[in-house]
Amino acid sequence: xxxxxxxxxxxxxxxxxxxxxxxxxxxxxxxxxxxxxxxxxxxxxxxxxxxxxxxxxxxxxxxxxx
Length: 66
Fold this sequence. Notes:
The protein is of the alpha+beta class and 66 residues long. It has helices at 14-32, 58-65, and strands at residues 3-9, 40-46, 52-53, 56-57. The strands form 2 sheets. A two-stranded parallel sheet has the order 1-2. A hairpin with a 2-residue loop joins β3 (52-53) and β4.
């Protein structure tokens, strides 16, 4: 059973995540020649304040640019 984990920053719409799951499932099934029913896709969303660049959270950085 292929298990695909995707880590990304929060902020995508539910529709975008659904499309990502669908496309990744088809790609993995085709590439590994596995039944699509066996493919599992997990999306882990990282809150902006849990990720940083140069000592500052992305939430802080984005707050200055918006």
